[in-house]
Amino acid sequence: MKSKIEEILRKAVGSGPVDIFVPEKENFGHYSTNIALRLAKPSGKTPLEFAKELAEKIAVSAPAGLFEKVEAAPPGFVNFWLAKETVQNEFAKAAKEKTFGRSAAHKNKTVIVEYSQPNIGKMMHVGHLRTTIIGDALANIFEYLGYKVIRWNYLGDWGTQFGKLIAAYKTWGDKRKVKEHPIDELQKLYVRFHDEAKRDPMLEMQGQAEFKKLEDGDKENRKLWEWFKKESLKELDKIYATLGVGFDTYIGESFFEKNMRPLVEELRNEGILTKSGGALIVNLDALKLPPALVLKADGASLYLTRDIAALRYRIIKFKPEKILYVVGNEQSLHFEQLFAIAKILRMDKAELKHVKYGLVLGEAGTKLATREGRTILLKDVLRKAIELARKVVDEKNPALQAKVKDKIAEAVGVGALKYNDLKENRNSDITFNWERMLDFTGDSGPYLQYTYARLKSIIRKSQTSNLKSQKFEMLNSDIELALMRKIFEFPDEVARAGEALMTSTLAAYLHKLAVLANKFYETTPVLKEENPVRRAALLSLISVAAETLKNGLALLGIETTEEI
RNA sequence: GCCCCCGUAGCUCAAUGGAUAGAGCAGCGCUCUUCUAAGGCGUUGAUGUGGGUCCGAUUCCUACCGGGGGCACCA
Predict the structure, then answer these.
(1) Strand B nucleotides within 7 Å of a protein CB
(2) What is the per-residue pLDDT across A395-417, written as a single tens digit (0 to 9) for each?
(3) How much is the ipTM here?
């Protein structure tokens, strides 16, 4: 609908960009534009005059019966109200299409979304939640918009940290213990290493040496590394299963190990390498960036070096239109440097975007650090959320079967965590707060899931299988029309989320949709409706509203259940 | 010191340069013999400070104040 009005508007104003938006309040129209405010000046008219003329022009030129009215409003808006019939017809179209809003417009375009990126040998903590669910949601959105999406879990499976882990294992490790609880033990070793390294600087060098050996192909270190990686992946899979998140590839940093030497050669040939304190750097003064270190004095590679190689690989192999790096704010400099070097190496054909987000800070408001043992484990957060959800289900809906309750608890617990994060768009840091994360009321995941379940409950009780009524002229009340309009805004909202790389606008839209659905629920008794034609139309409306909620939540990676 | 992010209601967050700055929580008052009260209705309450650009600034520029993060051999 939005694009249709834009087209009409474009015809009326001639050329140039036009922009239609849905105003906050209905008394400013169903759709609105501020174009008169922008175009009035060169015409010598006041914005309001310009808007009035534009409104009159459109009222005449628009297809008959499309609008109920088109009005100018101070200081110079043009507001559009759709006719009832337009709303009903447009809704009918949405109701007919199963894949409403899904587009094929970008069929041949590839987007690589890099997200989650856990480190092998360490447990995932709350910080990983943001990258994992934001990345997953963006991947879903781009798929919906018709892109070919590559979901890339770029594992942190290489680097000095493994030298440190290997050194720690060799010094204090107990093979039997590690076999029993691999990740717990490895994490303990890692923390101990950093703890003792504070007192014993030799340890740090030992760690670096072990990594160098690993990178040089030392058999024992290689074996240990493989073992740690295997165990880590098992652990990670459990978390991803709970989160309902999947990937197309787990190719991580270690994959690019073999590219390090040629890459350094290439950088040398480009003439952009400088020696500095034994290490090799790329000077980025011209771009007002600090120098980027690409090879350590001992000849071992670095995160950035591997990232350059990974970028090269992706561009050659997949020819993506965009690469989205869903990584925390704290790595801004790293990506500025990476993108700068990409430009120098002429690897900037793809649109490279650092999709950044604020840090999750501890309850004290400071950074959580695994290496110092200050961390909140993701598995604990998930477990706690699901347990709490289970308690609430028991309270609210005790009659359900235990198995059903478990399923609901998982959907609700995980949904609450995800929605809580995805509804926010700010780059600002989040201070970790159990209460807020596990709030199941108000503008929350469970609220949307609850709305869905309520709607489905009506349909179940109606004992009708035919939900295909198209007699939408029977639906005339303000709330019914408002709900229909909100539903067919769905594709516009998905497109907007994709353009802005933002999940918050989509979450806000779904919340508004749910508010309308609940208002409808409270004010319109459906099963008591005596007119069978209207009853069928109402059921059809409920069915489409529920589907839209379900589809929207699915884009955010949130499950819905029939009962809650 | 330099760079990045942020500062909106008591709290946690919204607001593609536009209209009367939106939600949720907490508070207060209603609302379950009616399709799930995880709900609905009502109500109290906010743009860090000073300049600037603009017809119009929470949004852009600038200075300051405050919080968080980063700044070479971690990732």
Answers:
(1) 3-8, 12-16, 18-26, 34-41, 55-56, 67-75
(2) 999 999 999 999 999 999 999 99
(3) 0.94
Largest Cα span, chain A: 85
DSSP assignment of A139-199: HHHHHHTT-EEEEE---B--SHHHHHHHHHHHHH--HHHHHHSHHHHHHHHHHHHHHHHHH
Backbone angles phi, psi at A83, to 5 degrees: -70, 155
A432-463 burial code (b ≥16 CB/10 A, e <16): beeeebbbbeebbbbbbbbbbbbbbbbbeebe
CB proximity A419–strand B (7 Å threshold): no
DSSP SS3 for A25: coil
Round to a whole number and report the distance in Å from the CA of A265 to the C1' of B32.
75
Tens digit of each residue's pLDDT (9 = 90 or more) over A291-341? 999 999 988 889 999 999 999 999 999 999 999 999 998 999 999 999 999
Sheet of strand A77-82: strand arrangement = A31-33, A77-82, A67-73
* Cα–Cα distance for residue pair A104/A124, rounded to 1 Å: 36
The H or E element spanning position A71 is: strand A67-73
Per the structure block, which two tokens stand in for A367? 């950074």
**pLDDT score, position A317:** 96
Rg (CA), chain A: 28
Reference A139, options A374, A297, A324; nearest CA is A324
Helix A182-199 × helix A219-243 angle, to 10°: 120
Residue nearest to nucleotide B39 (CA to C1'): A518
The answer to whether residues A487 and A548 touch, using CB atoms and an 8 Å cutoff, is yes
Of the candidates A311, A327, A326, A351, the one whose C-alpha atom is nearest the C-alpha of residue A109 is: A351
Handedness of CA A124, A129, A131, A134 (dihedral sign): positive
Burial of A256 (0-12, 13-18, 19+ CB in 10 A): buried
Answer whether A429's CB lies under 8 Å from A330's CB.
no
> Is the pTM here over 0.90, yes or no?
yes
